[in-house]
Design goal:
- It contains 5 helices and 27 strands.
- It is mainly beta.
- It folds into 2 domains: about 325 residues, no CATH class; about 100 residues, Hepatocyte Growth Factor, CATH 3.50.4.
- It is globular, with a radius of gyration of 22 Å.
- It starts with a strand and ends with a strand.
- Bound molecules: 2-acetamido-2-deoxy-beta-D-glucopyranose (NAG) (5 copies).
- This is WSC domain-containing protein.
Length: about 450
């Protein structure tokens, strides 16, 4: 078994001044305080960052955020993208687990260009949700699009402007680069784009937008193993993927961000809190426990979003459409009902359910069996907590009473039907704990995960 860190395969450009923040998502819901304030937004997003992310952006509320789902807690910014979904063969839709969240802050201007920290409340949009062909920013920025993570170095890992036309056995990463030149005046603009633009070919900013900023690269990695490529689509219904877009709302402490941008110990770093020297400016604000326990404080639309069970249609008016075939986004025969906005349900676990996998006693998918949980008391939470406490990133429950841990799904394990994992947990008959030679796998949804 070959173990390979995803870090090696990221879109990171080591020649630029840069730092990377890792995190996990805080919401999967129809909320967009920039493009559709005050209402249930048109499609599902996966959201990262401040716990106050709600339908209206109010600086006074954001300033009181309890926590951030990013590693650096001083940062009360938010980043969001349409969610990657799957169309099941019976026509229902499922959300795909989001396992990897990275945000790069890159200085791609010519050497020695000082970049300015984003002012508080700065907002912008990258990409175009209704695009039917590669958009300008994707041509300009080689780091925007879709990246298949097979861990196999077979040439399929190059970034493409559309969803891949082949299976991604481990991850499919959605990545988007934001504009990095600002007009220096407006925190936002009516189309959320006019106040910013991408740098010119020689790396400088045009006279219309003279202020050099960081290029933010948002990367979300989805666990697409077990899905065919033609099942994947964005939550907008876009099967081609040209309509990939992302939003950024900056709410950093401006002095702190400027210190990090100017601090040599924070530059050229794939992981600013890795084994080597630490990023001094941000180190005091690192808090992994707060990141992992951070829960959304704001109210959200009261609707099923495909995480806990398949849903009959994509939330909103988002019938599937294929721009590669020349199709335009269809309208809906009847306007979908708008859900009420209310309190968030049970907080989402920071471990994602990857589903049911085959297993065999001679070649385990997850190699380490934990016997510390008495066999009559097994629950999913207990197994996940036990694996987490030992530093593992994958946990699996099997045969009602067994708990396995590992850092990858190996052995001969293959995705199985969810219906195969139908045995009740010995410690809680309301939960399912795998089956005979069937393990239900959970994975820690943070930062860098090892795949093989
Ligand atoms: C922050 O969290 C505490 C408890 O963890 C809660 O009582 C408080 O209401 C939260 N703050 C906001 C603004 O919701
Ligand atoms: C449709 O397929 C999904 C995925 O295989 C399955 O979980 C769901 O139960 C099926 N729904 C119906 C109504 O058959
Ligand atoms: C960069 O390109 C622009 C547009 O072609 C040009 O006006 C500008 O002088 C160039 N700047 C440098 C430093 O080469
Ligand atoms: C989209 O259309 C192209 C071109 O006809 C086709 O090859 C592809 O399979 C279609 N994608 C899906 C998801 O159906
Ligand atoms: C910009 C910003 O959100 N600043 C806040 C960061 O968090 C601290 C507390 O952790 C606040 O005091 C800052 O106002």
């Amino acid at each position: 078994m070959k173990t390979q860190s995803l870090a090696v395969l990221s879109a990171f450009v080591s020649s630029s001044d840069a730092f990377l923040l890792m995190g996990q998502h805080i919401a999967h819901e129809r909320v967009d305080p920039i493009v559709q304030p005050g209402v249930v937004s048109g499609h599902l997003h996966d959201v990262v960052g401040a716990s106050t992310f709600g339908v209206n952006f109010d600086p006074a509320v954001w300033a009181k955020s309890n926590c951030s789902s990013m590693q650096v807690q001083e940062n009360k910014s938010n980043y969001w993208m349409p969610s990657l979904m799957a169309r099941n063969d019976n026509g229902t839709f499922s959300a795909i687990p989001l396992l990897e969240t990275r945000v790069y802050y890159l200085n791609n201007h010519p050497d020695g260009t000082k970049v300015k920290a984003f002012p508080q409340g700065f907002r912008m949009l990258a990409g175009n949700p209704s695009a039917t062909a590669p958009t300008g920013h994707m041509d300009l920025m080689s780091s925007s699009g879709f990246q298949c993570q097979n861990g196999r170095n077979d040439g399929r890992e190059n970034i493409q402007p559309h969803l891949p036309y082949f299976e991604c056995l481990d991850f499919t990463r959605l990545t988007l680069a934001f504009p990095d030149c600002w007009d220096g005046i407006n925190l936002d603009s009516p189309d959320h784009k006019a106040h910013v633009t991408y740098r010119l070919g020689n790396g400088t900013c045009p006279l219309s937008h003279p202020v050099s900023m960081m290029e933010i690269d948002l990367e979300l990695g989805y666990w697409t193993r077990g899905y065919r490529w033609d099942q994947l689509l964005l939550s907008t219904g876009d099967q081609a993927g040209y309509g990939l877009h992302a939003d950024y709302l900056s709410f950093w402490d401006v002095d702190l961000l400027q210190r990090a941008l100017d601090d040599p110990t924070c530059q050229h770093r794939e992981n600013i809190f890795g084994d080597n020297a630490q990023c001094q400016a941000l180190l005091p604000y690192r808090n992994d426990a707060a990141m992992q326990s951070c829960k959304l404080e704001a109210k959200i639309p009261q609707e099923e979003t495909g995480i806990t069970k398949p849903i009959p249609s994509l939330p909103g008016c988002n019938l599937p459409w294929n721009a590669t075939k020349g199709e335009a986004k269809p309208s809906c025969p009847a306007a979908p009902a708008t859900p009420a906005i209310g309190p968030a349900a049970t907080p989402q676990s920071s471990w994602a359910n990857l589903g049911c996998y085959t297993d065999s006693t001679t070649n385990r998918g997850l190699p380490i069996q934990l016997k510390s949980i008495p066999s009559g008391t097994m629950t999913i939470d207990k197994c996940v907590a036990a694996c987490a406490s030992k530093g593992y990133t994958f946990a699996g429950v099997e045969y009602s009473i067994e708990c396995f841990c590992g850092n990858a799904i190996g052995g001969d394990s293959k995705k199985a039907n969810q219906a195969d994992c139908d045995m009740k947990c010995s410690g809680d008959a309301s939960q399912l704990c795998g089956g005979g030679n069937r393990v239900n796998v959970y994975a820690k949804a943070i930062g860098v995960v090892d795949v093989y």
